[in-house]
Amino acid sequence: MPSSKAPAMSSTTLQWLSLAAVIWLQSINGTNSNFPAYSSQLKQMLSLSQLQLNNLAFANDAGKLFGWFSGIAALYLPLWLVLLVGSSLGLVGYGIQYLFLTHRIACLSYYQIFFLTVMAGNSICWINTVCYIVSVRNFPLQRQAAVGLSTGYIGLSPVIYTAIVNTLSSTPVQRAEDYLLLNSILPLIVGLVAAPFVGSVDSGKGKRLEAGFIVFSLTTVATGVYAIISSSMSRKLPPLINAVGVGLCMMTSLIVPLVEFVRGLLERGCYIRRDGRVCDDNAIVGNDELGAEAESGVKEVLEIHHDDEVHVIATVEEIGVSLMLRRLNFWLYFFVYFLGATIGLVYLNNLGQIAQSRGFSNVSALVSFSSAFGFFGRLLPCFQHYIYSRSKGRVPGPASVAALMVPLSGALFLLLNGSNIALYVSTALIGACAGAITSIAVSVTTELFGTKNFGVNHNIVVANIPMGSFVFGDMAAFLYRKGGHGDGGGCMGSDCYRYTFMVWGGLCTVGTILALILHLRTRKFYLQRL
Q1: Which residues 6+ apart lie within 8 Å of 276 measured at CB?
Q2: Closest to 155 measured CA to CA, from 253, 242, 250, 28
Q3: Which residues have C-beta within 8 Å of that of residue 23, sequence separation ≥ 6?
Q4: Is the per-residue pLDDT at 285 higher than 70?
Q5: Which of 57, 86, 216, 411 could form a disulfide with 127 if both were Cys (CB 3.0 to 4.6 A apart)?
């Protein structure tokens, strides 16, 4: 008789569940990208100057300066604990600000709010570290696709939060409060649900994984298309229907794990005939030798596939932080990121004020629009994986970054045009290119500096984001205030940020040249992998 014991999940099912968990975590982990949606209201409620507001935007990213703590913690603590620590930091950082804005606690000083914002920003690093490590460990041969899919959902965070907020509130003050409330509790709730699935799983390498990634890619693209459509129709689409639609799109990430789980149940029940097995328990027991031989054959095939893919997971060298900081390639890479993706992220952080200065009223829709294109940009590594895995070719990471920085530079110069069309086109290009560079950077870090110390190394690399937020953000605030003609240094019109866009575009062009130099220095390594 068949055993009545409930069958355990197969390793492949757990593998897909870990990717689904990472996707859900990333989709709610872009809490700092919500800042533009309520920054204008926060400025009014707290009577902040533009410089103070830009410093709070910097604080939103400043937590990344301490992101390496999460990398060190991941070396010694289980990933589920690292995840819950990060979620708890966000609960405290955003939660206390929410209680302050709703007058449930005594007044907080500006510097206390600044510190809480840094703490909340640091929580993102802890969750990101868990997501990156799970993607790299559980999908070593498909890590570029796994990272591309999962990081893409970071760009959907504003879409998800905006959809929920629109169903809960209508006034600007209520919206600011609800954003902070969701920022504090939603990552913790999703973190508690995802915690059992963020462990390491013995990875499969067969064709079934490729088929699963194709399904994930299709559902991910459909989700992104819905995000763009819902953003463009935000005034016509009822908020509740939009929120339900976003929720259904997120549920599609469970299709592959569910199908794999059902497949496992059917195979254990012998409802599917394959590999010479028959639906007879005694026959199966009597065919141990055949089963062992078949298993051996499968293992050999997997080893062959692994040998074929060895170049995909090759790295220049496995090095730690101290040695990495002495490498010229690191500093080239650091400043490429600093003058490329970071400038794009600073633009997106200041999108609310930029749009307001140009007389654009529907800021939330513009933020969601930029997030949707950032979502597709982050999927670029995934598309590259499929295209070049079939042709056995590969575009080097530094070359991809250099190619993306060309339209990024052009978009910044296009903003010198004061029309709303130019604003939309530039925002879409900046969101897509910055998102793509952010996603590609994960693979470039592992390729240049190894996977062993990835958690620490990559957090050192992304420390350039808060630095850029401070330098470029305060520069924008200074030029904005200098161009002000009204009371309090306020400024209206397309000229408010004109010099800012010129400087940003010029610096991004310099970053493009540095990316080309990095490509030339690492070209020999990438050519050996082809």
Answers
A1: 287, 290, 294
A2: 28
A3: 149, 150, 153, 250, 253
A4: no
A5: 86
C-alpha distance from residue 12 to each of 17, 60, 277, 334, 458 (Å): 9, 37, 20, 36, 28
Most confidently modeled of 278-287, 343-352, 483-492? 343-352
More confident residue, 460 or 525: 460
Please tell me the pTM assigned to this model. 0.76
Nearest to 398 by CA among 528, 316, 516, 524: 516
Q: What is the DSSP string of 7-28?
A: PPPPHHHHHHHHHHHHHHHHHT
The answer to whether 477 and 51 are in contact (CB under 8 A) is yes
Residue 218 burial (CB count, 10 A): 12
Residue with tokens 């052009």: 410
User: Under a CB-based contact definition with an 8 Å cutoff, are residues 15 and 205 in contact?
Assistant: no
- The rounded distance, in Å, linking the Cα atoms of 160 and 428 is 18
95 vs 66, 98, 140, 351, CA distance in Å? 20, 5, 37, 24
Q: For the residues of 425-437, what is the DSSP string, one character each?
A: HHHHHHHHHHHHH
Angle ∠(10,82,22) on CA atoms, nearest 5: 45
Query: What is the pLDDT at residue 318?
Result: 74
CA dihedral 478, 154, 40, 98 (to 10 degrees): -120
With b for 16 or more beta-carbon neighbours within 10 A and e for fewer, the 402-436 pattern comes to bbbbeebbbbbbbbbeeeeebbbbbbbbbbbbbbb
User: Angle CA(350)–CA(466)–CA(456) in degrees, nearest 5?
Assistant: 140
User: Could you give the maximum distance between any two Cα atoms of the chain, in Å?
Assistant: 89
Nearest in space to 409 (alpha carbons), one of 458, 344, 363 = 344
Check: CB of residue 501 under 8 Å from CB of residue 415: yes
Q: Rounded distance, CA 27 to CA 518, Å?
A: 32
